[in-house]
């Protein structure tokens, strides 16, 4: 309560909260197949463009906003980027589902390319490594990442311990991450939107899904198959249990993961037929390979490793990685979702957040999360709250009651009612599971008689056409066109400035990590 009282006394600072979005989306052709065309030249360089790039595949767009002090300006920019992409690429649409469209054979899924520079080749070879380790299909699953930071002056006011402001801030963000880990099952219930997958995607993969129709598998009460273990088996990562009790422990474990070799990856090797196929044989090639629902982050300079940045300058923001693409929203997220995320993350940051036992292992929370993604809407489901069993509805209401207090503080700070309204909107989903995106999607499939593939193709074309025909201001259109041209020139400058071979560059990159104290 003391921290909440401090927050109330300094609520004006909350208007300097920053948020940003990275939205992934597959480019598809008119028939709903994965695009085999290169990243459109009109969108600029995927290597250097600050807002429009690619993720794993050449066909997997990643649209990135800047950081914003309001939800309104954040979603305005995200909408403008979508409009520009669709207007410059009229023959294709963005797939409006986290689970992929019709994919070509594994060997024909195009891995993203970034030109001939060492920097670009590093990104490409890293993706080759992902294909070797996890398969290309799994890398085509798309999501939406929500980046969030609180005003730096708030952390000392909330009395987080530390010998420096940097340490107080890092400890504050780690407290946020621990609470997020405890309560993120609720996000899966409220916003999970991938209860089904096309049969063609699963092919010969082992799974426990049921038949929905001739072309669709599903689980009746699932919320987010994307965030389940569906088709994803990896001993190296499952053995990796990072600790969020303190930053030093997190950094040490991450350092070990990116420097210690793994036998199965040693067997693959780094080269095949004289070509690089992975950057190294370590548990993780680089830090970004660690798949988690949330990450502590620090902006890096060119060539700087994320661990080094965290070690030297502490945590700057958190990246939330568990949100599905919202199939009912043209830009993949609703304004109410963004407002709720702000209130939820503020609640996670300020509420008491005890350390995890057993060296930071949080098996109980991970199990609650895993149950919710597969069975979240089952009325008989109970979760483990510190040894007691509670229904999703009852525990969810308890959490929302607490979040509402933080939403009201945000409402006062921003002179709005949208934060409280967003919390109450989620409360309706707890009382009526049919209102959740996962239930709505399944009901739309039943009502339309369409398979997941055909329904999503229809929705994708509708959303993409709507964005394409919305008027983009002349100023914004020109600004984004200039950015595209400038990014192409910047890529060329990087390519001509390389002075060492790629082999030397990879060695320097792998050797660039500073050992934690």
Automatic annotation (TrEMBL):
Residues 8-358 form the Glutamate--cysteine ligase domain. Keywords: ATP-binding, Glutathione biosynthesis, Ligase, Nucleotide-binding. Pathway: Sulfur metabolism; glutathione biosynthesis; glutathione from L-cysteine and L-glutamate: step 1/2. Its EC number is 6.3.2.2. It catalyses: L-cysteine + L-glutamate + ATP = gamma-L-glutamyl-L-cysteine + ADP + phosphate + H(+). The keyword Nucleotide-binding applies. Pfam families: Glu_cys_ligase (PF04262). One of its GO terms (molecular function) is glutamate-cysteine ligase activity. It is an enzyme of class 6 (ligase). NCBIfam families: glu_cys_ligase. Belongs to the glutamate--cysteine ligase type 1 family. Type 1 subfamily. This is Glutamate--cysteine ligase. It comes from Advenella alkanexedens. The lineage of its organism: Bacteria, Pseudomonadati, Pseudomonadota, Betaproteobacteria, Burkholderiales. The gene is gshA.
């Amino acid at each position: 309560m003391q921290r909440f009282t401090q927050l109330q006394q300094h609520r004006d600072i909350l208007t300097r909260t920053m948020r940003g979005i990275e939205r992934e989306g597959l480019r598809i052709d008119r028939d709903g197949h994965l695009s085999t065309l290169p990243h459109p030249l009109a969108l600029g360089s995927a290597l250097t463009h600050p807002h429009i790039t690619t993720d794993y595949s050449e066909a997997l767009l990643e649209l990135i906003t800047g950081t914003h002090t309001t939800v309104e300006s954040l979603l305005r920019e995200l909408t403008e980027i979508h409009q520009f992409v669709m207007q410059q690429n009229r023959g294709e649409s963005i797939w409006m589902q986290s689970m992929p469209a019709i994919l070509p054979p594994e060997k024909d899924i195009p891995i993203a390319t970034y030109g001939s520079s060492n920097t670009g080749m590093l990104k490409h070879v890293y993706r080759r490594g992902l294909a070797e380790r996890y398969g290309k299909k799994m890398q085509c699953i798309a999501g939406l990442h929500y980046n969030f930071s609180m005003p730096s002056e708030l952390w000392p006011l909330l009395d987080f311990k530390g010998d420096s402001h940097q340490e107080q801030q890092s400890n504050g963000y780690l407290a946020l991450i621990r609470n997020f880990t405890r309560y993120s099952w609720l996000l899966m219930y409220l916003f999970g939107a991938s209860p089904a997958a096309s049969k063609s995607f699963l092919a010969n993969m082992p799974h426990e899904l049921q038949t929905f129709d001739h072309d669709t598998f599903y689980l009746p009460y699932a919320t987010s198959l994307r965030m389940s273990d569906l088709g994803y088996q990896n001993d190296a990562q499952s053995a990796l249990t990072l600790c969020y009790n303190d930053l030093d422990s997190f950094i040490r474990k991450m350092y070990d993961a990116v420097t210690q070799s793994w036998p199965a990856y040693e067997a693959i090797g780094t080269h095949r037929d004289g070509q690089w196929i992975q950057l190294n044989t370590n548990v993780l090639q680089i830090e970004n390979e660690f798949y988690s629902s949330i990450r502590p982050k620090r902006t890096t300079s060119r060539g700087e490793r994320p661990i080094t940045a965290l070690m030297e300058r502490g945590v700057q923001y958190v990246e939330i990685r568990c949100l599905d693409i919202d199939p009912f929203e043209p830009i993949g997220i609703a304004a109410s979702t963004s407002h709720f995320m702000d209130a939820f993350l503020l609640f996670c940051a300020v509420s008491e957040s005890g350390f995890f036992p057993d060296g930071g292992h949080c098996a109980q929370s991970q199990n609650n999360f895993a149950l919710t993604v597969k069975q979240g809407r089952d009325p008989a489901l109970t979760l483990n709250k510190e040894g007691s069993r509670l229904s999703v509805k009852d525990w969810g209401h308890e959490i929302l009651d607490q979040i509402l207090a933080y939403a009201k503080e945000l409402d006062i700070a921003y002179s709005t009612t949208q934060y409280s309204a967003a919390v109450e909107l989620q409360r309706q989903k707890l009382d009526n599971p049919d209102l959740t995106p996962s239930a709505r999607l399944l009901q739309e499939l039943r009502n339309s008689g369409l398979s997941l593939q055909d329904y999503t193709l229809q929705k994708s074309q509708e959303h993409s056409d709507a964005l394409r025909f919305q008027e983009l201001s002349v100023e914004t259109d020109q600004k984004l066109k200039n950015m595209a041209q400038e990014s192409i020139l910047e890529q060329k400058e990087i390519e001509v400035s390389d002075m060492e071979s790629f082999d030397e560059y990879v060695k320097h990159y792998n050797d660039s990590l500073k050992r934690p104290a």
